[in-house]
Design goal:
- The chain is of the alpha/beta class.
- It has one domain: Leucine Aminopeptidase, subunit E, domain 1 (3-Layer(aba) Sandwich).
- The structure holds adenosine-5'-diphosphate.
């Protein structure tokens, strides 16, 4: 049974996605930041920050969940990707872990669909090509073994990431 029909690539703003959960590329404090994190907090409204304050932060490579408040998505899974420090600080492992832990949380909540941004490839400086390989590998291995979530969406904001994902998908499918 192929898993490739359970993965979608969409170019756009993750705050507009109607998936059961969207994933936030947050920082360890979970108290908001720039990039996709800032956009999600702005769109969800102040109740999201109040919920995040109760979580006690999040370790790199782990994930926590809140409701989506004003977002179209019902849930937000907050995960923390690694800051790129040259490649010898377990960056690849921690990035894979951020994807995996988010998927496991989605499964625990019995969510059918989840949308990911390109974790760590903005301010955190993870090389985009390598990040995409890791993300797709982790998600596809997970889907082979699990029926939930049914659908995983890569919600891609920038053209460079979009081109990279399309190229990898054409090779993989
Ligand atoms: P990090 O600190 O994990 O690098 P950033 O938010 O700086 O997080 O960037 C992660 C990715 O999120 C980047 O590829 C960036 O293009 C993308 N991004 C920024 N805003 C949005 C948005 N509204 N929806 C989806 N992706 C976004």
């Amino acid at each position: 049974m192929t898993i490739w029909n359970r993965i979608e690539i969409i170019r756009g703003d993750i705050t507009l996605m109607t998936a059961d959960a969207i994933v936030n590329a947050a920082n360890n404090s979970l108290l908001g930041g720039g990039g996709v994190d800032g956009a999600i907090h702005r769109a969800a409204g102040p109740a999201l920050l109040s919920a995040c304050r109760t979580l006690g932060g999040c370790a790199t490579g782990e994930a926590k969940i809140t409701r989506g408040y004003r977002l179209p998505a019902k849930w937000v899974i907050h995960t923390v990707g690694p800051v790129w420090r040259g490649g010898h600080k377990k960056e690849a492992y921690l990035l894979a872990s951020a994807y995996r832990e988010s998927l496991l949380l989605a499964r625990e909540y019995e969510l059918k669909s989840i949308a990911f941004p390109n974790i760590s490839t903005g301010v955190y400086g993870f090389p985009k090509e390598m990040a995409a390989e890791i993300a797709i590998e982790e998600v596809s291995s997970y889907l082979k073994l699990n029926s939930l979530p049914e659908k995983v969406i890569f919600c891609i904001f920038d053209q460079e990431n979009f081109d990279i994902y399309q190229e990898i998908f054409q090779r993989s499918e």
